[in-house]
Amino acid sequence: MDRLALRIKFSFLSVAAATALLGAGGTFAAVAFGSVPAALAQDQPSAPPPAGGEHGHRMGEMLMSLSLTDAQKTRIRGIMADARKQNENVTDRDTRRANMKAALSKVETVLTPSQRTALHAKMDAMRQQNQTAHPQ
After folding, report:
1. What's the pLDDT tens digit per position in 74-126?
2. 53-133 placed in CATH 1.20.120
3. How far is CA 84 from CA 43, 58, 60, 104, in A?
4. What's the mean pLDDT when you consider all of the chain?
5. Within the chain, which residue ranges are assigned CATH 1.20.120?
6. HSE of 119 in the Cβ direction (CA atoms, 13 Å)?
7. Backbone angles phi, psi at 92, to 5 degrees
């Protein structure tokens, strides 16, 4: 191939790659900012589930239902962020679980006695619900 043909081919490939990247980036942005209907967003490839999965989401909901002060929320978010970061590259389930249990112990120190009691009651109810849904 002569030099001109190579330049044309390279230019074409560059434009094609840029178009593909812009299209993918636009789709990602639309999904991230909520401008794509939920039914379409589900068809998009998804990232791996966050550490803690469904249980982590439910734990967050339980904690936020305890009428926490802004200071408590800030401290708890920091504790949980540290635990997620600590578990980032951990593949062993038992180690991940131990790290999250340690984080929960730290969270409990931030709570008032009545908040701690309410959290334990909510956790017991969640365990009961899980046992009912998934008997062993």
Report:
1. 999 999 999 999 999 999 999 999 999 999 999 999 999 999 999 999 888 88
2. yes
3. 27, 15, 13, 12
4. 73
5. 53-133
6. 21
7. -75, 120
